[in-house]
Design brief:
single chain, 319 residues, alpha/beta, inorganic pyrophosphatase (n-terminal core), Diaminopimelate Epimerase, Chain A, domain 1, 2 domains, 5-stranded parallel beta sheet, 12 helices, 43% helix, globular
């Protein structure tokens, strides 16, 4: 029997796995990648009796490969908060999926574990820009404000590390980052003992400084759209930029586009005060998808830029 841990390379995916493996230690084959690399089950060739744990990747995007693996005799636990499409009915599948806007995958794992290892769920929720749910999850610990700030910084740093076109854009491969994290039961110990934290925190701030100098291509009372250049720092920081803008102006929707040779990578944040509509907007484009509060388009052709900006403005001006 072989175990596979298949997880998104962002803060939510890594912290979800961290919680599970602190409670259920096992050696496994790690399958992960950049945040946008969600077709991870396509990489798995499991045998009958193998066990898969899938964390924070869309079931809808992996449905065909999930059915293939189940038909081949593997079993699977699937934790996620993205719209799943039709969930297969199979005795070897246990799906824990909740698309509510105030949950992330790590908070679902936290429920599953009865609150054990919750501080890692707090880190993930902060990284997923769920400030309120993160603070509520942390409340029973009675943390000092300085500790809460550091947990938030860690979540933001882990999430920032997952953004890039390929793992070459990242500071650390997500599998290597998880292997470093797994030594620490308490995220505060990781913060205090690993230079990784400061490297990511400082790099994120440097990239944000570059991004915040870019003037918006679209700016209205209800929404703002930014186009970043084709550069590694742009690919790394566009998610962090979207979160920063959403935090600064919670009543406004934001779109961050990163130029690339075949068009644009698009990240959309619905207004924090009204976290809906991002998924519907992005689904109008061929490679779009995501959640109501945050969604994206993997490749927006260059010729569709004006159409996207018009649809973006239309979608959120009426809210």
């Amino acid at each position: 029997m072989q175990f596979y841990d298949i997880f998104n390379g962002d803060a939510d995916g890594i912290c979800a796995l961290q919680q599970l493996r602190l409670e259920e230690p096992r050696e496994s084959i790690l399958v992960t990648g950049v945040k946008r690399d969600i077709h991870l089950l396509a990489r798995v060739e499991a045998r009958p009796g193998d066990e898969l744990t899938v964390l924070d990747i869309s079931l809808a995007a992996n449905a065909r490969d999930l059915e293939r693996l189940l038909a081949g005799g593997a079993s699977c636990r699937y934790f996620d908060h993205h719209a799943p499409g039709t969930i297969p009915r199979h005795p070897n599948l246990r799906a824990v999926i909740d698309t509510s806007p105030d949950v992330c995958t790590s908070l679902l794992v936290d429920r599953h574990l009865g609150g054990r290892r919750r501080l890692w769920a707090v880190v993930a929720a902060f990284g997923d820009n769920l400030q309120g749910p993160a603070a509520r999850a942390a409340a029973p610990f009675g943390l000092e404000e300085s500790d809460l700030v550091r947990l938030r910084e860690l979540g933001e740093a882990l999430n920032y590390n997952a953004y890039g076109e390929t793992t070459d854009d990242l500071h650390y491969h997500p599998a290597e980052l998880y292997e470093t994290l797994r030594q620490y039961a308490d995220p505060r110990d990781f913060i205090g003992n690993e230079p990784v934290f400061e490297v990511l925190r400082d790099a994120r701030l440097d990239d944000l400084d570059c991004a915040l100098r870019v003037r918006p291509q679209l700016s209205t009372e209800k929404c703002a759209g930014f186009v970043l250049p084709d550069a590694a720092w742009s690919r790394r920081v566009h998610g962090a930029l979207g979160n920063r803008l959403a935090e600064r102006e919670p009543g406004r929707a934001h779109a961050v586009l990163v130029a690339k040779p075949d068009g644009y990578l698009v990240s959309v944040r619905a207004p924090v005060e009204r976290p809906r509509g991002a998924d519907v907007l992005c689904a109008k484009f061929e490679t779009g998808g995501g959640r109501a509060g945050a969604a994206g388009i993997n490749t927006l052709p260059e010729g569709e830029l004006e159409r996207f900006l018009a649809e973006f403005e239309k979608a959120f001006s009426a809210q």
